[in-house]
Design goal:
Layout lengths: L6 E4 L5 E5 L7 H8 L2 E6 L8 H8 L5 E4 L7 H9 L4 E4 L9 H6 L3 E3 L6 H16 L2 H9 L20 E5 L3 H14 L2 E5 L5 H16 L7 E3 L3 H7 L2 E4 L13 H6 L5 E4 L8 H10 L4 E4 L18 E3 L8 H20 L11 H4 L15 H4 L7
Parallel strand pairs: 2-3, 2-4, 4-5, 5-6, 7-8, 7-10, 8-9, 10-11, 11-12, 12-13
Antiparallel strand pairs: 1-3
Helix pairs in contact: 1-12, 2-3, 5-7, 7-8
Bound molecules: 1,4-dihydronicotinamide adenine dinucleotide (NAI) and 3-hydroxypyruvic acid (3PY).
């Protein structure tokens, strides 16, 4: 028997029962669901990561849709439980959905939503912050200051790397990778090298136009290159930021061999998913190469770090906060709620999940569509004409 889970209920007489496995920022997402006759149940259990059993208890006997989190294991067991309860909609409150077995969802006819776009700039800004912080040793210097060790300016105190004129490498130049690249190229006048399975045409055009602008102003123009292999990026770049999805092709993309081909004073940033880096190999590499620095937002066995990582001064570690700006987190909650609501109401799927702004304007009602359903095609769901 599953244990009861504590919940907060909104609009108890609503026709459709929607469960959120966590309290989420803002109230717009709750109001949008209530306005469309949903009873909203929010899990208030004081436990960060819910187990599959906890979520089964939350789903109960009747549930139309669930908004879940990237820490949860959405596989066969949960999708069959949701389907038994009459549910046909699930949305992650995240753009990444490597915690979701989409084939299992397809089997039970459950639509799987995610939240692209609204977190692109926020996440890229954190990757840029980690890049600068690692290059300029900001966290180390802050600790030094607070420890009362500063006794005067010195020529050699916390000397780091200048970014201007160096090369930034991006692996996975999708929405976030491209936004990060633009920030580093324009903000710091860095040259770009990127690797992706697809050509990042808009990004290339941006760097070309910026190079023209610099040239016209008598400055050294920036350059770009699409690398033929990931190794080319690792060999040539001074700062490398990882932004691919996590799947079989990107698991341990950065391993012992690949760390060995990187520059000894390179900066490596990961705001994608922890398992993209072999973290044990990384700890060893950081120990052997004190001038090699990393900024990590994600970890291989979250919430844990591999032994030794926390002791290394050349590593900056933050707890998976890349999308944590107020506007973004409220927007993610809204998109996740609208994904679920849209499926419950039989709305079509929004035609372009990269263009989610119409759902985020608080002054007008959102379009009658699910903003982003990753298995829409597999389920044969209709697409909005808007
Ligand atoms: N740390 C955090 O809080 C956050 C992490 N993320 C992570 O970032 C990922 C990317 O998000 P978006 O940019 O919105 O997705 P996206 O789908 O726009 O970009 C992913 C890019 O990775 C590329 N890619 C896929 N396999 C590859 C491979 N084997 N080698 C090189 N490139 C490959 C794709 O072609 C695509 O361009 C998410 O899937 C998520 O895991 C996203 C938001 C916040
Ligand atoms: O959206 C995601 O994929 C995250 O990791 C958290 O924003």
């Amino acid at each position: 028997m599953a244990k009861p889970v504590s919940i907060e209920v909104w609009n108890p007489h609503g026709k459709y029962r929607v469960v959120s496995t966590k309290p989420m920022p803002g109230t717009r997402w709750i109001n949008l669901l209530i306005e469309q006759d949903c009873r909203v149940e929010i899990c208030t259990q004081k436990k960060t990561i819910l187990s599959v059993e906890d979520i089964i208890a939350l789903i109960g006997d009747k549930c139309d849709g669930v908004i879940g989190q990237l820490t949860e294991d959405w596989g066969e067991t949960l999708f069959s439980a949701l389907s038994r309860a009459g549910g046909k909609a699930f949305s992650n409150m995240a753009v990444g959905y490597n915690n979701v077995d989409v084939n299992a969802a397809n089997k039970y006819g459950v639509a799987v939503g995610n939240t692209p776009g609204v977190l692109t700039e926020t996440t890229a800004e954190l990757a840029a912050s980690l890049s600068v912080s690692a290059a300029r040793r900001i966290v180390e210097a802050d600790e030094f200051m607070r420890a009362g060790l500063y006794d005067g300016w010195l020529p050699n105190l916390f000397v780091g790397n200048l970014l201007k004129g160096q090369t930034v490498g991006v692996i996975g130049a999708g929405r976030i990778g491209s936004a990060y690249a633009r920030m580093m190229v324009e903000g710091f006048k860095m040259n770009l090298i990127y690797y992706d399975l697809y050509q990042a045409t808009r990004l290339e055009k941006f760097v070309t136009a910026y190079a023209e602008f610099l040239k016209a102003n008598g400055e050294q123009p920036v350059t770009w290159k699409r690398a033929a292999s990931m190794d080319e990026v690792l060999r040539e770049a001074d700062v490398i930021s990882l932004h691919p999805i996590l799947d079989k092709t990107t698991y341990h993309l950065v391993n012992k061999e690949r760390l060995a081909i990187m520059k000894k004073e390179a900066v490596l940033v990961n705001c994608s998913r922890g398992p993209v880096i072999d973290e044990v190999a990384l700890v060893e590499h950081l120990k052997q190469n004190p001038m090699f620095r990393v900024g990590l937002d994600v970890f291989e066995d979250e919430p844990y770090m591999k032994p030794g990582l926390a002791d290394l001064k050349n590593a900056i570690v933050v707890p998976h906060i890349a999308s944590a700006s107020k506007w973004t987190r409220e927007g993610m909650a809204t998109l996740a709620a609208l994904n679920v609501l849209g499926k419950i109401k039989g709305y079509p799927i929004w035609s372009d999940s990269n263009r989610v702004e119409p759902f985020l304007n608080e002054n007008v009602p959102p379009p009658a569509a699910s903003p982003s359903i990753v298995n829409a095609k597999a389920l044969g769901l209709p697409v909005s004409r808007l």
